């Protein structure tokens, strides 16, 4: 037998083993069988040589199969990336394939959080511990934190015995819960920036080979590309969505701008041809496709000046000028109104205020004439009634009908400057004149306020007219206006002298309202009961004497005592009644000791008599105190 024959024969069993892909330990069997059969040494040596060659071939085939599987997995990953739709699904596939090819029990991927400055779990495969799946690793902490910080791969065959890593209780607890021992981590990088870490791990000791580290690095590169691609797609989608939204806004704005231009042209033409407020409302109704109407100051409370506000399903914008509320434009049945249409409504309100001011300016000359006629009625009672009637007729006023004289005062703050008071008086006169013109009456500025002569309608009363006038003027000026009314003057043109007396009565009513703490209201003498009887005399001056006599009879001794001694008994009486006749509360109101109150009440007992606190006397004393204060106020007013 030649040397080649045994050599050739020795290779046959190994070719069969290679052909069927037998396990590595099966390659020992031919040698063991030959040795058991007593084969010569040269045959055994040939078999050993053939076994070595066969094992090398087997290892080469295994490597090629493994590389083929790796390349196939990488190809499939690249294919997934090409059709990327769901980032989470792609990352899960990468982690799953890495676990399968490396033959590890667990694979997972973490991403860096630049805001928190750490890295967190994003995808896991084969994990069973909830604590592990929620781990966050600080930069430099644990194996993953070190990979994220250094951008280099790290592997350990026994994590808990490896001193290279910064062990923390949180990380070690999570790894221990998962039961991991051997861990390999490679960085996910975009350029020079690390965005996360890809891991493969086993629950037993294991040495990761260089080829395995390189393979996991390839998967990490694909994962980084997937994340970058997904981010770019998300940014692109967001940009497209924003662009589409911007296009929609531009289209909407174009329509709104056209409407705004249309209403501007209409309002300009309307003003130039002398249109009125109803024309403005009609034009805006057409442009805004709604129903717009104007409400005067009585019909609509003042709102935010110059700004449209929503009230239910309506939009309201105040029509104002110089701080005076003239009314409002109301757009009905438009719960949703974009900002440009709101500005259109606001612009219409401004044009409305200009038209109202223009109309008012045209009427100011007429108002001055009305004021001059009323001044003549007040100051020159000997005027020819025929001439008065003619002047009134030109102003569309009928001075042969019953009228009421009203005195109006604006209630400005006590600390108001002289300029403020002057401006308030002008505003009051302007609003009063407008009211008189629309009501076929007269108005004039007088004694720091405004006096009006208004017709008393059939079935009306002076008190009702006073309240209505106070409400109207207060609403127009957005300041409390107090209005006092006289009784009816039957025919002012026939009895001019009666107008002056009625004006004094109206002024006394204003003083009484302010004294009684009812500033901003309207009233006539009939509203004050017994006090009204004293206010509403027959206009021959007798009430003044009646008031003075009543006050003197009731509290004259106390008033005289205060005047002689400079004491404060009248004020003490006022406070005592205001505090419910309680000395304890009275001393707090006067800021004095309770003994002082007792001493003053003793003095009042001696001056008025011990029964002054009985119900009948107490009522008279309180009324006398009011009348005394009213009389003092009138005296002060007359002095000024």
From TrEMBL:
Residues 86-237 form the GAF domain. SUPFAM superfamilies: GAF domain-like. It comes from the Bacteria. Coiled coil: none annotated. Belongs to the CdaR family. This is Diguanylate phosphodiesterase.
């Amino acid at each position: 037998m030649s040397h080649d024959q045994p050599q050739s024969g020795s290779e046959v069993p190994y070719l069969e083993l290679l052909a069927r892909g037998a396990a590595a330990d099966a390659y020992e069997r031919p040698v063991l069988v030959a040795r058991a059969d007593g084969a010569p040494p040269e045959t055994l040596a040939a078999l050993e040589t053939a076994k070595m060659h066969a094992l090398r071939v087997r290892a080469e085939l295994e490597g090629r199969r493994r590389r083929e599987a790796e390349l196939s997995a990488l190809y499939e990953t690249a294919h997934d990336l090409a059709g990327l739709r769901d980032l989470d699904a792609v990352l899960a596939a990468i982690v799953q394939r890495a676990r399968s090819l490396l033959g590890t029990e667990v694979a997972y991927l973490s991403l860096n959080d630049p805001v928190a400055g750490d890295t967190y779990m994003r995808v896991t495969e084969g994990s069973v511990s909830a604590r592990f799946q929620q781990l966050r690793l600080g930069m430099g902490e644990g194996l993953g934190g070190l990979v994220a910080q250094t951008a280099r791969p790290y592997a350990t065959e026994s994590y808990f015995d490896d001193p290279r890593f910064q062990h923390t209780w949180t990380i070690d607890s999570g790894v221990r819960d998962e039961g991991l021992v051997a861990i390999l981590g490679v960085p996910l990088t975009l350029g020079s920036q690390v965005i996360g870490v890809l891991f493969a791990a086993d629950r037993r000791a294991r040495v990761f080979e260089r080829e395995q580290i390189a393979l996991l690095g390839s998967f990490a590169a694909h994962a980084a590309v997937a994340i970058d691609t997904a981010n770019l797609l998300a940014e692109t989608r967001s940009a497209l969505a924003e662009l589409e939204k911007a296009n929609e806004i531009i289209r909407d704005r174009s329509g709104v701008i056209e409407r705004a231009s249309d209403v501007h042209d209409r309002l300009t033409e309307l003003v130039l041809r002398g249109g009125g407020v109803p024309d403005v409302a009609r034009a805006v109704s057409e442009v805004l496709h709604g129903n717009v109407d104007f409400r005067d100051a009585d019909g609509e409370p003042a709102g935010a000046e110059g700004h449209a506000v929503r009230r239910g399903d309506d939009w309201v914008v105040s029509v104002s000028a110089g701080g005076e509320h003239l009314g409002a434009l109301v757009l009905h049945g438009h719960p949703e109104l974009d900002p440009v249409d709101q500005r259109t409504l606001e612009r219409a309100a401004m044009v409305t205020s200009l038209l109202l001011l223009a109309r008012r300016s045209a009427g100011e000359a007429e108002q001055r004439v009305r004021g001059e006629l009323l001044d003549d009625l007040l100051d020159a009672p000997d005027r020819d009634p025929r001439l008065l009637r003619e002047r009134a007729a030109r102003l569309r006023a009928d001075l042969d009908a019953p009228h009421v004289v009203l005195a109006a005062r604006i209630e400005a703050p006590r600390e108001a400057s002289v300029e403020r008071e002057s401006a308030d008086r002008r505003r009051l006169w302007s609003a009063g004149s407008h009211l008189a013109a629309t009501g076929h009456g007269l108005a004039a500025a007088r004694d720091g306020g405004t006096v009006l002569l208004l017709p008393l309608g059939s079935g009306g009363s002076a008190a009702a007219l006073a309240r209505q006038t106070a409400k109207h003027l207060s609403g127009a000026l957005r300041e409390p206006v107090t209005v006092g009314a006289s009784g009816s003057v039957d025919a002012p043109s026939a009895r001019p002298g009666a107008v002056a007396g009625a004006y004094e009565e109206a002024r006394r009513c204003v003083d009484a309202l302010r004294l009684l703490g009812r500033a901003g209201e309207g009233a006539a003498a009939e509203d004050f009961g017994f006090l009204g009887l004293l206010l509403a005399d027959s206009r021959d001056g007798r009430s003044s004497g009646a008031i003075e006599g009543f006050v003197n009879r009731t509290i004259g001794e106390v008033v005289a005592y205060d005047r002689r001694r400079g004491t404060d008994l009248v004020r003490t009486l006022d406070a005592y009644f205001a505090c419910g006749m309680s000395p304890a509360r009275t001393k707090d109101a006067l800021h004095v000791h309770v003994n002082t109150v007792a001493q003053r009440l003793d003095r009042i007992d001696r001056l008025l008599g011990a029964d002054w606190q009985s119900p009948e006397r107490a009522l008279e004393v309180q009324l006398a105190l009011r009348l005394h204060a009213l009389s003092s106020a009138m005296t002060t007013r007359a002095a000024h």
